[in-house]
Structures are given as structure tokens and as C-alpha cells.
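Hi there,

I know you've been waiting on this one. I reran it after we fixed the sequence typo, so this is the corrected version. Both the input and the resulting structure follow.
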Amino acid sequence: MTKKSLAEGAVRLAETDPVLRKIHRRFGPPPLLRRAATYATFVHIILEQQVSVESAKATFDRLNDACRNDPSPRAVRDLGDERLRQLGFSRQKARYALALADACLAGEFEIAALSRWDDETVRSQIVAQLGLGDWSADVYLMMALQRPDVLPLGDLALVKGIQEVDQTEYPSRQQIAERAESWRPLRSIATRMVWQWYVHQRGRDIF
């Protein structure tokens, strides 16, 4: 996706979905939210699991400083478990980051190749790595690879946001997926629009 295609997609969604129309009229098109297609982004995603965006960013910034602005697999492996813990990684997240570094260094996980594959192949490659599940794959597909039709059902901001804008309680992820069927093939853009609503309601900037 580009800023232009995202803005055009937001207009299309606003034309067909009354709730997204309300968001679009109030906020305009959502930001692109681009991240680099790198190992460092995977580490950032690992840090974001089950904690606030702000907390994860603070830890990632410390890692970035410790790696002289290049948290590559080799740099993170050289830091090791103890240093990662000092920087704010939990024991589990340090294990995940180091395991991913080892997989990259061994050639078992080729991040550069992901951009050449379809969404489901990318997802299968990501979830095969220790500590990376569907939510991690969704975030990488949306933000690093800029795929246009990803629905991150494990994302709290999406789940709470769509319930708030729809003024409806959805008891299951499947019901949210069904609600979002009309957003195809632009579910990534619709998700960004819901995120706009979610963060504004909480007085925050969007990620």
C-alpha cells in the first residue's frame, strides 16, 4: 500500500460502511503506519505482546541504543540474555528474540524472502517461529509488508474499537470476522480506521 492507495481505499470503505463513514468524516484517512521489513521489527512486535505500545517502545528504544541503531540478529545475539533482561525484556521475550536471531543467522528464517510470498505463506513462516503467533504475523503483514487485506482478530484495539463504534458486544472473534466481511479486500485499511477511533477515544496518538 501507499498513502494514495490507502486514502482511496478509506473513501471506498466510507462509501459502503456507515460506521467507517462516520470515522472518515471525523478524522480523514488513517495514517499508513509503516515499519521496516526487518528482524528489528519482529523484535519490536515481540515486545508489544501483552503490554502497552508505550512500554514496548521504551524497551525497543533502549535496545536500539545498545545496538548502535542497528538491532540486527547478530547484534542481538551478541548482547545475550542477561543484557536483554537489563534492557527490559522479560525472560520469555528475551528467549523469543534470541531464538529468532539464531533462526535468521542459520538461514532457517529468511525475512527478505517474505515480501515475495502470498499472505498465507508468510503467515505460516512467521507462526513457525518461537513466540510468534497469528497476531504477530498480522502486524508484520499489515505494517512491514503493507498487505491491504489483513484482519488482526487478536488485536485488542481492533476488537474493542469495533465494539465501541458499532455499539455492539461481539462475543467471539468469529462474529467480528463476519462483521468485517464487507470490508474485503481492504480489511487492513478498515482496521486502521477503527484504530483511529480507538486511540482518539483514549486521548492518544495512533501508535
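Quick highlight: The mean pLDDT is 96.

Best,
R. S.
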